[in-house]
Amino acid sequence: MNLFPEHTRHLYEEEIIRLRRQFHKIPELCYGEEKTADAIEAILKSYGISRVKRVFRTGVVALLGDETKECIAFRMDIDGLPVEEKNEVPYRSEHPGMMHACGHDAHIAILLMTAKLLKEQEDKLPCSVKLIFQPGEEGDGGALPMIEEGVLEHPPVSRIFGAHVWPGVPSGVLEYVNGASFAGCDRYDVKFYGAGGHGAMPEEAKPPILPMSEWILGLKQAEKEETNCVLSACACKADGYYNVFGDYAQIQGTIRTLSETQRTRVFETIKHLTETIQHKYGIPVEFLPVEEYPPCENHESALAEYIKAAIKTVGEENVRKGNPTFAAEDFCYFTKACPGAHIRIGCSNSPETSYPLHNPCFQIAEDCLLRGAELFCTLALNHK
């Protein structure tokens, strides 16, 4: 689809790269994205977009097109990570200890260029379009608070689309996943209350380290028996000394599942494991889960529309089916509120652009940026 004359393409490409680098310099953490939000607002208004507002602190929302028509939305996240950047580039982070190590600078640039391109063709839009710049995806999650403040209302959103630059996918390729694209994410603590004593006299104590170790082995066995999930013990601590048994131990970890049914089943398995360890060793053991994000489910009809637009954008040979990731995404709350879909924009074309997300050397192939904006615009201009 021709969004602009081919001889002007390089101008848009230069601008979107400039935008990405501008935001790469100023990463900000969850709900502290003040510079980022101010810059987004200013750029949107410079494009002649007047319907711009803040939603939930540092969230920014823009509206294009005829509000009396059906409204679709595009959502991108805007926060950085507490990572010290290692890339020696002219546009490296200017904020010590902070970095756009997950590509949200690219997401901002893609959505801003989408705004510019759609504003230039606003009279051709068959629908109204809401552009959602969401804070806090890497922290407590800004999606749910934005929804609670009415971001999907006035006008009501009938369908929502999101995307993420993805280093495991070559630049030029767009990847989709049927059903759950991101896993549900929950965290937990397990607390073991033993009885301390002399390291040479274990029969006179109830040291918690052995039951803690057995609990971890049981968790990994449960992961092995339950396909398509990740059950990780990520941190352990216990007091004590070389010849002293402590009386307390703790495990912290994460649970990743691909459906609510699986999530419930896994929780029951872990509760049974905990009770078994408690009875075997005769000490109190507490399993304390905290539910975080549910799985992020792609709606069939929304994903079909997305795939159709992707094929128009990059050709059928460059659109492929992928596998779910066990990373989590609070875009899941948007797809719970209305039909929606989320896909991956390939951003790797060299060893330098193949580092994983959240790595201090993370970089992208910048030719993916305009492709992402073209995808969104193609979808909006062809929405039926």
Strand content: 25-35%
User: Going across the major beta sheet, what is the strand order?
Assistant: 1-2-4-3-5-15-6-14
CATH top level of the largest domain? Answer: Alpha Beta
| H/E series | HHEEEHEHEEEEEHEEHEEHEHEH
Number of strands: 15
Based on CA inertia axes, which overall geometry fits? elongated
Low-confidence stretches: none
Rg from alpha-carbon coordinates: 24 Å
CATH architecture of the largest domain: 3-Layer(aba) Sandwich
Written overview of the protein:
The chain is α/β, with parallel strands linked by helices. It has 2 domains: 6-182 and 295-381, Aminopeptidase; 184-293, Alpha-Beta Plaits (2-Layer Sandwich). 33% of the residues lie in helices and 27% in strands. The chain is built from 9 helices and 15 strands. The protein has an 8-stranded mixed β-sheet. Strands 8, 9, 10, 11 and 12 form a 5-stranded antiparallel β-sheet that branches. A two-stranded antiparallel ribbon has the order 7-13. Helix 7 (300-314) packs across helix 9. The model has no long low-confidence stretch (mean pLDDT 97).
Task: Give the key terms.
single chain; 384 residues; alpha/beta; Aminopeptidase; Alpha-Beta Plaits; 2 domains; 5-stranded antiparallel sheet; 9 helices; 33% helix; elongated
Fold blueprint:
Blueprint: H1 9-24, H2 34-46, E1 52-55, E2 59-64, E3 71-77, H3 104-120, E4 128-134, H4 143-148, E5 157-170, E6 174-176, E7 180-182, E8 184-193, E9 197-198, H5 209-225, E10 230-241, E11 244-257, H6 260-281, E12 285-293, E13 296-297, H7 300-314, E14 319-321, H8 332-337, E15 340-348, H9 368-381
Helix pairs in contact: 1-3, 3-9, 5-6, 7-9
